[in-house]
Amino acid sequence: MSDFPVIRTPRLILRELCPADVPALFAIHSDADAMQWFGTDPMTDDQQAEQLLAQFASWRSLPNPGVRWGIERQAEPGLLGTCGLFKWNRPWRSCAIGFELARAAQGQGLMTEALHAVAGWGFEQMALNRIEAQVHPQNLASLRLLERMGFVREGLSRQAGYWLGAHHDLVQHGLLRADWPSLAPLAASPV
């Protein structure tokens, strides 16, 4: 992956994260209530946001690369959250999807719009056959979002996650390329 794949949707720009995003990334990831389902402890200082930014950037150079996009409105610059594809298993043509959104931007269909574009990009540009997601069973908003996108619940991974000093079960979901054509009109084209 050489050039960063910028994606535009009707309302959003999915773009490369940059150092100017650190304060917004910190604000999102330090919100303990919003991050209770993310899979990591809430951030306590800006350095952690800088490290997360570097981690997301490093995904593109891994043997099995991934992409993490910053999400912002086309009409109003400023980071709203991130989403991405990671843990790419090229021989199996599969990867995982992850996402988070600032609390003020939730409930507006923005993540649905972003994830439709990202999934479409993954099926087209990465030649994926499968996209996986793991979500905490009490994260109802994310579970509903995945179901609206066509992800199928496949089971429960017992105590698969560990954050906030406790082990957590995660609900496993999968979206197959064969399931995608009915959703394809909602996906945006890469720029």
Automatic annotation (TrEMBL):
N-acetyltransferase domain sequence ranges: 12-181
SUPFAM superfamilies listed in its UniProt record: Acyl-CoA N-acyltransferases (Nat)
Matching PROSITE patterns: GNAT
PANTHER family: GNAT FAMILY, PUTATIVE (AFU_ORTHOLOGUE AFUA_3G00765)-RELATED-RELATED, RIBOSOMAL-PROTEIN-ALANINE ACETYLTRANSFERASE
UniProt protein name: GNAT family N-acetyltransferase
Organism: Pseudomonas idahonensis
